[in-house]
Structures are given as C-alpha cells and as structure tokens.
Amino acid sequence: MSIIERGRSVITVYSETESFDSHRIRFLLATKSINCKIISVDRNNPPEDLLANNPKLEIPTLVDRDMHLYGVNVITEYLDERYPHPPLMPPDPMTRARLRFTVYRLEHGWFEYISKIENNTGEIKKQAVNDLTAELVAAEPLFSENPYFMNTDMTLVDTNLVPFLWRLEHYGLDWEALPKSLRNYAHRMFQSKAFKKSITESEREYRFDF
Predict the structure, then answer these.
(1) Is the dihedral of CA 58, 202, 189, 130 positive or negative?
(2) Where is each GST N-terminal domain found (predicted)?
(3) Rounded Cα gap, residues 84 and 172, in angstroms
(4) How far apart are the C-alpha atoms of 200 and 210, rounded to whole Å?
(5) Model pLDDT for residues 6-61, shown as the tens digit of each residue
(6) Bridge partners of residue 11, in order along the sequence
(7) Fold for the domain defined by 93-192
(8) Start-to-end CA span in the chain (Å)
C-alpha cells in the first residue's frame, strides 16, 4: 500500500499473512488509502526491533514515530481519528457508542468461533461450525435492513466483519446455506478495490470465486 499523503510520516504495521486480526487492520488501511509500510512477521523469527518494544509479540502492531500500538480496536480507532477521510465512525456520541458496542458483541460472539474452529478437529470443530452457521442464519435481518452492517454508511464494524466473512468457507461453513442477504453483502464488499488490496496471496486461497 503506497498512497502518498504529503506531510504525513509513513506508519509501519507488523502483520501476519493469514491472521484474521491482521487482515482487519489491512482492510482498514486499504479503505482509507493510508500510506504505510506493512511488514509480514514470522513468529518463529520476529524482527528484533518489534520484540524490543513488544516482548509478548502481539500482532498486529502499529508503529507511528516513537509510538507502538497493539490491540485491534486500539489500532482501528487510532487510524480512524488520525486519518479522518473517509470517516468510519459518525460524529454523534450515541451512534458511535452503538457501533463500538456492535464491535464488542462481534468480538465476544461470532469472532470467538475462530479459535474454536482453528484449534480443534473432529466433533468439536463440527459443532462449532454448526453453531456458528445457526447464529448467522438467525442474523439474516441484520444484513438485509441496511446497505452496510446495521448502518447506512460503511463503518469500522464493516472493516472488522468482512475479513471474518471471507474466511467462512475456509472454516468449513456451507456458503449456500447462509442467508442470501449475508451473501449479497459479503460479495459486494469482497468486490471492493480496498478489500481486494487487503488480501494476501495465501488468504486468496480461502475462496475460489474471486
């Protein structure tokens, strides 16, 4: 990603090529056309400068001048405030709080299935896939009421959610069994230039229809 913003220093983002959390940050960076340097990290051989400031090796990590940030929500809100165009959070406090709460519910709801599916096999994984499918089917109205997820404009909720939807088939969910409104929303977002730019080569293999 190399869109130059005059008068801005280039930030650095340490990212993993197949990490859901890293993809969320890469999609946000591409959506805002933020000039940045992305460094792919191998956890078995991490850069020394990253370890010096982040000994627990929490990735993604953002470096802006002498500031080091990690934690997806910390990074996303910082980027949205530092690079306000296009804005991905509305100006009024009540709507901002509602959207932050939506991200919180995703973190403690659908996104928790990621570790259950990635770290298990057999019946445990199968049950997690079935449970997640059922929850997504029940959420059909959330995808059909607005152009974006629970909002008329694109927000940080979408930059968090779309990389998750990209992985569903890879996790073993039957795409055609999911609500049509969810699939339509996902396909439209997958086709965006920003999302295509955010995907690594290994992540492209998660789906074969794009």
Answers:
(1) negative
(2) 9-87
(3) 37
(4) 13
(5) 445 689 999 999 999 999 999 999 999 999 999 999 999 999 999 999 999 999 99
(6) 36
(7) Glutathione S-transferase Yfyf (Class Pi); Chain A, domain 2 (1.20.1050)
(8) 20
